[in-house]
Amino acid sequence: MENLELIESFSEFKDDKLIDRVTLMAILEEVFRNALKKKFGSDDNFDIIINPDKGDLEIWRNRVVVADGEVEDPNQEIELSAARRIEPDFEVGEDVSEEVKLIDLGRRAILALRQNLISKIHEHDNTTIYKQFKDLIGEIYTAEVHHVRHKVVILVDDEGNEIVLPKEKQIPSDFFRKGENVRGIIEGVELKGNKPMIVMSRTSPMFLEKLFEQEIPEVFDGLITVKKVVRIPGEKAKVAVDSYDDRIDPVGACVGMKGSRIHGIVRELGNENIDVINFTANTQLYITRALSPAKVTSVTLNEETKHAEVYLKPEEVSKAIGKGGYNIRLAGQLTGYEIDVYREGVEDEDVELTEFSDEIEAWVIEEFKRIGLDTARSVLEQDVKDLVKRTDLEEETILEVVKILKEEFEE
Predict the structure, then answer these.
(1) Thinking of the domain 4-125, which architecture would CATH place it in?
(2) Where would a tag sit more exposed on the chain, N or C end, judged by fewer CB atoms within 10 A?
(3) Contact 76, 66 (CB under 8 A)
C-alpha cells in the first residue's frame, strides 16, 4: 500500500520508543479509526489490517449492495452498478469489501494522521513513565545532575527521564555539579498536562529509612525493623529500631564496630548526626532512650494530653535539649509526646519564665522556650555566647534578660 512517511513511522516508533507490538498496533488502529470517523461519519463497517514488521496496513470498507437509486447511507450501502464495477457478478443484498487507499483520505488528512500518531505515542510514553515512577514512590533512586538552578536541580536517569530535586528537598549542605550522580527517594509523581513531573527528595525521613535497608543487611533481610525515623535534615536524626530475635542487638548491628556501618549513611546525609535507639513499648523507657545522650532520672506521663515531664540532674539538661533544641524536639517527634525538662531537686527554687512577662517581652520568652529553656535557672545555667548562637536574640537582649533573672535570686 502507498503510505510513504506514515508507514515508515511504524519501525521508527517501535525501535526508538520500545513500544511492544500489541500496543503499537492498538495505537495505529485508534488513529486510523478516528480519521475514518471524521471522513465517513462512522468506522463500524471498516476493517483495518496492520503489519508493523513490514510497514504495511490495509483499510477495507464493507457495504451492502442495493438497487440503483436506493442508497440511503453512502457509507453503509453501494449501488448495484457500482458494485459490479468492482466484481461483475454481485447481486442486491450481498456484502462488498472495497480497499480504501490513504490517498483517498486527502493530503491534509494524511498529515493530520501522522501528527495524531506522534501525539498518541508520546501520550503512551508519558503514561507508561507515570505508572513506572508511581510504583517507585518511597524507593531510593539514582540520577545524574543535568542542570543546577537556583530553586531546583534537574536530574536525568539512564532512560533520559527528567527528575526534579527542589531546593526544599535538598539537605542544606548539598552542593551539586553537573554530571555527578545523586541519590534520593522518589517522593511523588504527577501529570502536568500530559507530561509526568517526578519529584525526588533527600530530606524525607523515608530516605534515611531506605538507606538503612540498603546499607545494613539485617534490616534488608527483615531481621531488624526500623520502627520510626525523625530528622532535621543535615543536622540530626533519631532512628528507633527493633528485632524479634533476642540474639540480635539491633543498635549494635546498625551502628557497627566504631560506627563502621552507619558511617556511609552519615556521609550521604551531609554528616547528619544519627542516634540509633532500641524501640520499646514501655513509654517511659522509650522517652528515656529518645533523650539520649542525656541520662534521665525519672519520667512522669500524662497519657490523655500526651505530655511527659522529664527530670534530670542539672548537668544533663543541656544534653537533653541539645544544640538548637534539636535533641528534645526529635525525641518528642519520635515518641509522640510533648516533653518538658526539669532540673532534679531545684524545681521549688526555680521560676517559670512566663512569671517575668511584665519585664521581658513575650516573643523573647518564646525564643528561649523554643530551645527548651522555660525557667529562670535554665537560662542562667547557659553560656551567653552559646545562647546567641542557639537563638535569634542579640547578645544585648540576652544580657538584659540575665540581669532581670539574677535579680530574682539575689536577696
Answers:
(1) 2-Layer Sandwich (3.30)
(2) C
(3) no
